[in-house]
Amino acid sequence: MARRGELTAGGSILFLTVLGTLSQLLAFGYRVALSRMVGAEVMGLYQLIMPVYSVLLSLTAVGLTSAVSNLTPQYLALGNSRGIPQLLGTCLKALFLLMLPIAAVVLLCSDPISVYLLGDARTQLGLLLLLPCVALTGVENLHKHFFYGSGLVRPPAVAELLEQLVRTGAVLGLLVCFLPQYPERVVGLIVAGMVVCEVASSLTLTLLYRWRLGRMGLTGPGETGRVRRRRVASIALPVGFNSLLGNLMGAVNAALVPKKLVEGGMEPSQAISELGGVCGMTLPMLALPTVFLGAMSLVLVPRLARAAALNHPREVREKIDKALSAVSVLALPAMGMMAVLGAELGVLLFRQEAVGEYLLPLAAATALGCYQAVLGASLNGVGRQGTVAWISLLCDGVQLAFTACLVGLPQVGMGGFVLGMLVSTALGLVLCAWRLAAFTGLKFRLFQWAAAPGLAALLSALVTNLLFQVLRDSGVPVLGRIPAALVFGLLLYLAALNAQGLTMRGLFRWE
Fold it and tell me: Comparing C-alpha atoms, which of 495, 497, 492, 494 is closest to residue 453?
């Protein structure tokens, strides 16, 4: 039974998905407006510094937030809620102790980092402004994962929507006020807007946490500092180390792509634009219909942690089964529709023909990534963070190898990066599935999880493509043919799914 004020898992996923959809739509509109205002080259520079942002978070906050998310439901399941504020206090202290030396290194070495590691001196201002953004994001995420770990999804979901509103207003407002500027200053303005957003978000979540803690009422003996620090470290260190190495590889990969493209004969500005087009436009567009995935993972991990703490292996398997069924029937048609309609949608939104160049393989990689994300979240939920770590690192290494070996070839170019993404994601999916089956005894139902929704999605995509071509040849404008084809395709998908004996009914009805 759900505790008072706590939604069931299905209700939590639905609520998070609805709020997340609104947030993602706003975020996507923000990205479209940003792309139009600054252009592909500045978007490429922005993509160069964002992996650094991820690396800094990995060094400071990622492992700690995972500890909060995993340990909070365990404290609640065992009736020891007094350990929760002790846990948050320990993690906040650790965050700032980690942040101080790292910030000092970045401040002193910002010039060589921007020139030699990122490959473009115009990233320096944005790099420096990332430091307060990282610290504030850490504070925000620690409090946010307290709520997710407690099964209280509404406060952080609403705060996230407000956060996106503030980010949109702050970044676009700064650009409207100060453009035109040199590219370096434009990147700095974007990051400055992010800092404003994180100030508002961290304050909001801290106040909400204190309010909720006052209402919760603390019970149990708490936990000694030595035991608590050891438990936090056992989760935070492998997760943080994995995230750090993965994000370091991501940063190297992002910096390597334009360098390799230039080696293959491309102009530097065009190479940066290629990176901005794929990573700053196409991939975010493909991620838009997978908004449910983050909601599912956030709800799944603490519930699996609770079931594992209570030694309920059957409940663990049932929750994983439900999650994989849900991701199958949602992700496959979404990527099928994007493969058919994404090229026209990209031109409509970004005014860039190149958005659709690698659409089909990137859509396939995104679909595989949805499965891998749920399997990885399940492994984290049952306490196998180390397994997720080595799988992620191996896959990142494969992606980096493809970039290093293929992107510099004139006849391959950016296609080498895309192929690496497809191969590394498929490898990660297989490895996560293998280890999860070994640890939990999960039996894979390939018909329900892959074959049935896959066939329905394929039929829907092929017929939708035909309809889309007919509507285009008939002179129907793009704003009319995209929604018409989309609605027809989704209805056909549901019919094909039902014909195979599968329905959406009951998909999210799990505790």
Answer: 497
- Looking from the CA of 327 toward its CB, the CA atoms found within 13 Å total 24
Q: Whole-angstrom Cα distance, residue 441 to residue 419?
A: 32
Q: What angle do CA 103, 245, 56 make, to 5 degrees?
A: 20
| Contact (Cβ atoms closer than 8 angstroms) between residue 234 and residue 54 | no
Structure tokens at 345: 């949608």
Two tokens, residue 510: 């799990």
Identify the H or E element spanning 165. helix 154-178
Q: Identify which of 32, 2, 1 has the alpha carbon closest to the alpha carbon of residue 284.
A: 32
Which residues have a Cβ under 8 Å from the Cβ of 34 and sit 6 or more positions away? 43, 171, 172, 175, 190
- Output the six-digit token pair for 414: 């950016």
Find out whether 200 and 164 touch, Cβ atoms under 8 Å: no
How far apart are the C-alpha atoms of 358 and 339, rounded to whole Å? 10
Residues 209 and 143: beta-carbon distance below 8 Å: yes
Which pairs from 501-507 meet CB under 8 Å and 24+ separation?
A: 501/452, 502/329, 502/448, 502/452, 502/453, 504/329, 507/10, 507/322, 507/325, 507/326, 507/329
- DSSP codes joined into one string, 293-352: HHHHHHHHHHHHHHHHHTT-HHHHHHHHHHHHHHHHHHHHHHHHHHHHHHHHHHHHHH--
Domain locations in the chain? 9-444
Tally: H helices and E strands in the chain: 18, 0
Which 8-state DSSP code applies to residue 451?
I
Identify the CA nearest to 183 among candidates 56, 37, 51. 37
* Alpha-carbon span 283 to 412, nearest angstrom: 19
* Contact call for residues 391 and 376 (beta carbons, < 8 A): yes
pTM (predicted TM-score): 0.68
Q: Note down pLDDT in tens along the chain; length 511 residues.
A: 444 444 455 555 566 666 666 777 777 788 778 888 887 778 888 888 888 888 899 889 888 998 898 888 888 877 877 888 888 999 999 999 999 999 999 999 888 888 887 777 888 888 899 999 999 999 999 998 888 777 777 788 788 888 888 989 999 999 988 877 788 888 889 999 999 999 999 999 999 888 888 787 777 777 887 888 888 888 888 778 877 887 788 778 877 888 888 888 888 778 877 777 787 778 878 887 776 676 677 677 777 877 887 788 888 888 888 888 888 888 888 888 888 888 888 777 777 677 777 888 898 999 899 889 889 888 888 878 778 878 888 898 899 999 999 988 888 888 899 999 999 999 999 999 999 888 888 888 877 788 888 888 888 888 888 888 888 888 888 788 888 888 888 899 888 888 877 766 655 554 5
